[in-house]
Batch of 2 targets.
Target 1
Amino acid sequence: MRLLTLLCLCLLPLLSHAAHNTVLRDHPSPYFRSHADDSIHWNTFSATAFEQAKASGKPILISSGYSSCYWCHKMKQDTFSDKAVGETVNAGFIPIIVDRELEPEVDAYLQTIMEQQRGFGGWPLTVMLTPDALPIGGFNYTKADEFNATLQRFLNEWATNKTSIQEKAQAKANTLTQQRDAATTVADTTMPVDVLQAFLQHVSGAGDEEYGGFGDQEKFPNLPQLSALFTLHQLKPDKDLYAFLQTSLAALIGGGLRDHLGGGFFRYTDDRRWTHPHYEQMLYTQVLAAPLLIRAGVEFKQPAYLQAGREALLHTLTAFRRDDGLLRAGLSAVGGDGTAGGYYLWKPEQLSATVGKDWQNSVHNLLGEEADKVLPFVKVQGDAGKALREKLLSERRVRPLSSDDKALLGWNGLALNAFAAAKGLDPELQQAGEKLAAQLLALTKQDTLPRLIGEPAAGEAQFADRVYLAYGLAAWGKANEQSAFTDAARQLLHDTYQRYYQGKGWVQSEANPLLGEIAVPVIADSQLPSPSALWLVTVWQVADQDPVLRKIAEEISAILPNALRDNAFFHATHIAALVQHATQEKP
């Protein structure tokens, strides 16, 4: 009997690891599946894991990443698969892994913790919390030895100085809460002229007039900000704003952020000059860039912008569309050779074999002529250029490229908006939009909306998912004069308000074991537009026959100015929406 007991005790950790592995290996998230064999016995994000932390008194180690991220891939290989790291984490922590695309609200909170601690976030992101889920501190990519040493130092400190750590964690949590509370102060109903000025001042300070975009180091497209500036320029043309938009859009389509063979856009570049891309491609980048480029092409009479927007959406159909017509989340930065950008980059000898020894006469290297690998830009114009581009694409398509096949409800809603913006540009885009629109409309008739289409076990759609869906349905209905879509959008807007608006703010997800139900009046733009701003935008698009919904939107917008003044740059979508609405209401 004693032998049987000892055997059970010895097998228990193995059985526990097997259970965790099964949960991850069978999960619809490829990010989770890739971590099934880690040395760490990960839990998925659930109330059960947080209850386990409280019951055991162990701190929480929560890590957020996503499948297309190169450094997440490296962290898994270098650190989470390390045996010593696994032993430390499994013994001392309750480990939780998060797919940031399935839990965007959780990820946003973790990013805020890191920004408070270090001034920047990013992925992969690993944060330590107390057993009561109060923030202690976090890391981005860290190699195994350093990561393990840091965790062991912390556990030693936790064993001897737990009270002090908990008090500091509570102070950090209080600071985060105070930031939210400050934003809920009710403003007067003055139109946001000073808020607009604050936004333009922030834009002026952050804008890079020489190379376009924002910042003087790495360059993200910041599409919500550029879209807001374009809207403001349409409302009141300004030569300086026009020049900045032209510089930024030219950089967007002309530099290394764009895959000039395929037509898609990478997530960001590592340098100010838009030269060296970070190679993962996200669905949201394509479907947010395309409508802006199409609008700019029409407004500025620039065929190059229009063509780039069209190509981005055609690339979306080629690279992101699944067999069922829905759109996958992302394309990995990691090529089949295990290197960042391996799918997109060419060695000179490969180009010599494909194009000829004089390939430099027809192909330009976007990384710079001194780089040892080539990110191709076809210099030849006309039919010869098209033929060369297709030849390179044909050669490239045989290379392996991993993708994240999750069909996220909200991102597919944003895609539908992009297809609506492209109406009349291409029959293939119209047909794809029609199929996607029908699929999304059918989902609105279900009792429960899934965050991940076709995978109800992955969780129910939350605030942003529903708003992005309503936004896409409304845009498609308006562009194609189909009331069924605008009616569905209107109903979604009502349901979302009733479900997520509490007091004077939005709750971003329901019954969240980390976030609770904290209501905020305004949600900031990230690389995606603010869902609280798009809720207002969509209401004003579809509420002509719905005075109740319109009145709600007016009441919400009246309390926003105070919440928008601070960090106005990150409230671009809200500010442009309010200014546009005020202009339409009072010409």
Target 2
Amino acid sequence: MEVDYVNPLIGTPSSGFMEGRDGGGTMPCVGTPFAMTNFVAQTRENKISEMPYFYEDSTIQGFMATHQPTVWMGDYGYVSVMPQVGKLKLLPKDRALSFTHNDEISKPNYYSVSMGDKSQKIKGEIAATSRCGIFQFTFPKSDESHIIIQGINITENKKAFHGHIKIDENKREITGYNPERMSSHLGPELKNFKGYFIIQFDKSFERFGTWNSFRTEPDIIKMGKEQTGARMGGYISFKTEKNEKVKVKIATSFISLDQARENLSKEIPDWDFNKVVENTRKIWQDKLSRITVNGATEDQKSIFYTALFHTMLFPREFSEYGRYYSPFDDKVHEGVSYNDYSLWDTFRALHPLLHFTQPERVSPMIQSLLQMYQEGGWLPKWPNPTYTNIMTGTHADAVIADAYVKGFRDYDLDLAYEAVRKNAMHPPYRDTEKPWGDRDEGTLYEARGGLTYYHSLGYVASDKTRESVTRTIEFGIDDYSIAQMAKDMGKMEDYGRLMGWSKSYKNLYNKETGFLNARLFNGDWDKNEQEGFTEGGRWTYLFGAMHDIEGSIELFGGKEKFAAKLNENFDGQHYRHDNEPGHHYAYLFNYAGQPWKTQELIRKHTSTINYRNHPLGINGNDDCGQMSAWYVFGVMGFYPVTPGTEIFAIGAPQFPEFTLRLLKDGAPKSFKIIANKLSEENMYIQSVKLDGKILNQPFITYTQIMNGHLLEFEMGKNPSSTAFKNN
């Protein structure tokens, strides 16, 4: 079954494929697709820049309910528990137990690990739903067995967060909340934000207590029932027989303890650990089997289904059975909500993939963004879980417009246009007074920094606003996307203005250097040719105007010169697959009349140079599923280059057969992709047929896929200049 191929350990090392490269930033979490809370073994104290689990670590510090989406974003509202025998040890490094990966099993629906010395081994197991988890700890015989609870873990306070726990030995229950948000310094104050938790045990406490520690040794209060602090928790103690199993349930909520209790009653009402394992497995199997693969190797299937698994983790569910807490107005509302959108990355491939694999979630995800706009005043750029002002474009615009163009419209369309239009038309407060550097702290949290210059000069000025070239390009991508909505809605004046602005990247093309270069406010070129870029340099963004490829070709002097520059980019090793801005570059040869080059590059970059069935298996940070979504599209044979359009550029399928289980107008249908004669040598397309009709161009539309049934490729060993006759 498809679920059995998933290896959640792929992408978990902190190290990358080579020196200077990032690890995948993933974790072996357990839970249902798009789970509100991830349950994971904790190998270190997580923080911004460090995940709770890194494959290189050799000890376990806890079993955690976490909300950290990726390595460069913060956790919030978390809690952890840790089994122990012998002398009570409370702090993470003191209580840590050694383990090896030989004693570890990781699946989407189940995780287990054996920890500690041979004579005192403890086995920890995890099963989970969306908002609740159940841990099963198998203890050795001991008169001193413990479970330590850590309710909050602040070592360096940026804000005065204090968590709270309360022990009820009669109910065998610990309740509490954690108000910490690691990214809180970037966003608004949220007085009502709390990660509520209820922890229940199936074993009576013989002894218990609370502890409190902030940069000091723990202050232990034996038989203490309540505790407040910045680094604190509780513990319970009992005797265990050999191989005695102790179960622990954790319910989480952002609304209240009562809501956490309701979540638990709905998701894990009893103590049947194996039932939770099996139910979550069935859910994953259903979602993963929406794409079936035939003819791939076992390793390829593991890479593919792990990638598909990674595309079904974020944005995370944030509502709780008809209600949600909003970190944008600090209130509880009725409705459905999602959060942790890595929009700078995921607008490229993740969200377009969800149109096929998770169509029932697309409109609710858009609706969630619109709720954030209503409650906070702006669409978010990277909510974690509230505004952070991280990254440069406002790519919620592209996500909303792309869904709109493809027919996902089960939300307030006028409100959607109002929200994206505000991003395009209104600069942030005091725009010209701020440089808008990465993670700058301030009192205004979102929008397009530097938009004033973009409108008045036709580009963002490098001596006024940081990352100016990237901003100019990305504002254009978003303007183009919004323009497609405007045109369809009959707002032709807006359409004209937006389309005009979308060409502004051309004002940064420097004929002398042949690159997009930064310009000063006075119009002069910035002397630093590498100035103005986000996570990259001048090669990274040279072909970044994914919304105006014909315009870029013209700028370079025609298709041949454009293709020559593309070749220089790839041949000179300037392409960095581990970073998202260039993810569409391999497909640009289609537009330049050389589709066989695209086919070569897709074969190369879907290979083990970037993706492996190994913990060190993703070349760069997965960024909440974007790197994985690129792979899924890459091996299927088509890719969404330009948001706000229905057009997909054809690459080349890498497996002999795919079957997509789709929903059209609410009814199930299948779409099959077949690659005849595909082999290691036969990487080139000789012809493509859609339902028996030859495609004359290396492009296919969303409508064609949704209306079609069979996409059939004939593959061969030689490049074909006639595979697409009208190219």
